[in-house]
Write a structure and sequence with these properties.
By secondary structure, the chain is mainly beta. It folds into two domains: 100 residues, no CATH class; 145 residues, no CATH class. Helices cover 3% and strands 51% of the residues. The strands form two sheets. Strands 1, 3, 4, 7, 9, 11, 13, 15, 16, 18, 20, 22, 24 and 26 form a 14-stranded mixed beta sheet that branches. The chain has a twelve-stranded mixed beta sheet with strand order 5-6-2-8-10-12-14-17-19-21-25-23, with no helix packed on it. The chain starts with a strand and ends with a strand. InterPro entries: Toastrack_DUF4097.
Amino acid sequence: MNQTFPCNGTIRADLRVAAGRLEVVATERDTVTVSVVAMDSSEASAEAVRETKIDFKEGRHLLVQAPEHGGWRLFRRARLLVRVELPTGSALSVKVASADTVCEGSYHDAVIHTASGEVTVGPVTGDVSIHTASGNVRLGPVGGHLRVTSASGHVRTGHIGGTVTANTASGDVELGGTDADTRVLTASGDIAIGVARSGEAKLNTASGDIKVGVAAGTGVWLDLSTAAGRTTSDLHMTGATPPAVATPTTLTLKVRTASGDIALRRVTPA
């Protein structure tokens, strides 16, 4: 099944695929194309292709909805390859169960729901919201705010321009860089920030490790606590005598872990 629609500018794409693979490509273009093919020779997959709903309303809103065939939680499903090509800067809403997802190109904003499927998304200029059970999510740079809810899925991102709010059970959270307030709470997951520049970072884990890189030249106020873990740092600490020229604190780190280790280091941003 192949369909092409003319469009004038960016669109919002609502894409729902249970099992198989979802591919999205954002490029400079004035059309939207959708391709749906079966990934195996089963009658269930062939029927799913025929029943997939494709709708493009008012030249702005694309809906691609593959049939669920008994619900998202069934182990056996039809497997489809869904490929969508749309204009750069479009908005994404993706819901997958076990389907793996790759979104290439740049997007305006993104909402991602995955059960166990692996998801990769390129740069997003606005906000991103992630909800995952066990699927891992990899993001490029995010210009806006990031919100994450995860059970055991790991989340890895590029630089985040806005605030970060993340809650996981055992999923790891790795942020390439932060410029604003960051809140990460996890039970046993690890937490890592490649380069923290400003704002307040509150990082809490029970048994996970926490690693933070502090941008060179950034003044930082530290509030660290670990019960059974080790704390290491190569940050230069001022002595009892204040420096001749005071450096204002631009970054506050509040780090808590019960049995995990804490590691802080100075890094030079690329």
